[in-house]
């Protein structure tokens, strides 16, 4: 494969481009040149084309090849429907071939037969024709939202492009149970498997064209057999799939069928996933996410998200896998409540069915009906991610019962020790554990994971209601029963000491025991000594006072040894909590 640094002139002529992208461009060129030279197999990756070979390419060659890739023949009819791609596919082919043309910056000159053939009127016309067809049927990258149920049933709605034949419904057909039903199911399964292979092979080299053609022939024969088995079932199948107005071109599927599970995309790392590389995790409102979860996105060929695995979103990073897990738990809660009310979610559902299940299961979510300012909260406009936060902060019934048990246990363990002159005056609450050891915290106590300011308040203030002394009085033996709490206590003490020293240096009085207001003032004055960068690596403003103390331990830089983001990104162990 030629590189952009073969010689100075070529380096100046071609803009810089990533190696992986250049390899993908060159794959398209090798496929095109194999067609042009009537080769049965695609040229190998290390093959280099001469300038004379590339100069012989004409617009007619490009158009014929595009027709073969899109229609499986060089000269399709004017009203033929593309089988293996869209105008985005042709745009990419054009861009890939154009990159290697000797006169790529020049438009095609018909008189002298020179210039860039991909910039000719013929090539632009075929792309324009396919784009108009895509616009007519509603197949476009810009259409990210799923079509509403009303639009799906409208007679003017067009069926999104699919490799399945027009008279084959993507939904599981409903009809009378006759003797031919088992045979129909078998043939239908074979048909769907063939269709998925056809979609896959359409993006690969010409060496697979023969196999692809065989599959298409098989599918045509299977469709003929299906049509002759039960004529009545065919009409029922068309009705169940949203057949409107008696014209096959107007068929719009309203039910999620098993064919949607066959939609997969090959990523640059070679892994097949249910979403394309350009897909991003949807941050939509709760109802839209529920429809994505059960119905998918037929227009953009995305399967229902309930069938996603971690590998399908792993290319987006760890956060995407966490998002998938959180959404799954949220959807399960809604589904369980809907089932209790008689609306049972099925493996395949229409948009109307999914909307009905959503309305029935909405009451299963526990959240406050009002905002902190007292305004009524509209859950229909609430983002699913926001609701996840509310779900985490809202205690469940089991949590409340566990909390009551913990309080009762703490009351039973509370003891009044004999006063000692060595004990601080505010160190007055002790708890006798089952092992006979008296500690400053009950056996049910968990190490608090709070923000820097809130932790500073606990560090210097008594908790009268919980009957806990300021945390600065705690010793390692007081927390030895809680996993990793001795290490956590040591780390918190280091952070609090830095804040105390800075606050005292600026004239604040560090009392033995403070009120919450006094503690807040000292913390606001002294936290700057932690020297934590005011912005995150991606440019967002960082609120240090609300930052978890464990993050402050990881990011603090009291001595100012390094101000580089690398120090901020260093992998240090997070504080752990025994849950």
Give descriptors for this structure.
disordered C terminus, single chain
Question: Quick check: average pLDDT?
Answer: 74
Shape: elongated
Beta-strand residue percentage: under 5%
| Strand order across the largest sheet | 3-4-5
- Annotation field: number of helices: 21
Please give the largest β-sheet.
Answer: 3 strands, antiparallel
Low-confidence stretches: 4-15, 140-179, 230-258, 561-579
Radius of gyration: 33 Å
How many β-strand runs? Answer: 5
Q: Tell me roughly what share of residues is in helical segments.
A: 40-55%
List the helices and strands and how they pair.
Layout lengths: L7 H6 L5 H18 L14 H5 L3 H13 L15 H13 L21 H17 L11 H5 L27 H21 L7 H21 L1 H10 L24 E2 L5 E2 L12 H10 L14 H4 L4 H23 L10 H11 L22 H10 L3 H17 E2 L14 E3 L5 E2 L12 H9 L24 H21 L10 H11 L22 H7 L9 H4 L11
Antiparallel strand pairs: 1-2, 3-4, 4-5
Helix pairs in contact: 2-5, 4-6, 5-6, 8-9, 11-14, 13-14, 17-19, 18-19, 18-20
What does this structure look like?
This protein has 579 residues and is mainly alpha-helical. Helices cover 44% and strands 2% of the residues. Helix 18 crosses helix 19. It is elongated, with a radius of gyration of 33 Å.
Briefly characterize the structure.
The protein has 579 residues and is an all-alpha fold. It is 44% helix and 2% strand.
